[in-house]
Specification:
alpha+beta; 5-stranded mixed beta sheet; 3-stranded antiparallel beta sheet; 2 helices; globular; DNA repair; metal-binding; mutator protein
């Protein structure tokens, strides 16, 4: 069974994004040091949107306003993360708080179109980064 995961492509502006927030993982050891979109697993009884809001408060200390889903290649629009997970990714902007590495991360970084690939993204996130790159100015 494929488990539902959610992520946020946090940008500075939903209509004309120029920067994307990335977060460097600390857990689990196999993923430590890789950069990713903040988010996580959907818990039983949660909608994907509820899970994403919860995860972003826990991981980065921010609340966000969600935009459109970043459409993935799977039939349901999600992005494959190995064989066990599939992730729905939303465009998002920070409503309140300043992104900080609170849980599961030790750094956050705003990236522009010019330095988008300067961090070692987790391999499963690279196709999502490629899709997002087309919208960054």
């Amino acid at each position: 069974m494929v488990r539902a995961v959610v992520g946020a492509a946090i940008v500075d502006d939903l209509d004309h994004p120029t920067r994307l927030l990335s977060a460097r993982r600390t857990e689990p050891p196999a993923l430590a040091g890789g950069w990713e979109f903040a988010g996580g697993k959907v818990d039983p009884g949660e909608t994907p949107e509820q899970a994403l809001h919860r995860e972003l408060i826990e991981e980065l200390g921010v609340t966000v306003r969600l935009g459109e889903v970043v459409p993935g290649p799977l039939a349901d629009g999600r992005w494959p993360l190995g064989e066990s997970y599939a992730m729905t990714v939303w465009w998002a902007v920070v409503d309140s708080g300043v992104p900080a590495p609170i849980e599961d991360h030790d750094a956050v970084r705003w990236l522009t179109a010019e330095d988008l690939y300067d961090v070692p993204w987790l391999p499963a996130d690279l196709p999502i980064v490629d899709a997002i790159a087309t919208r960054l100015r």
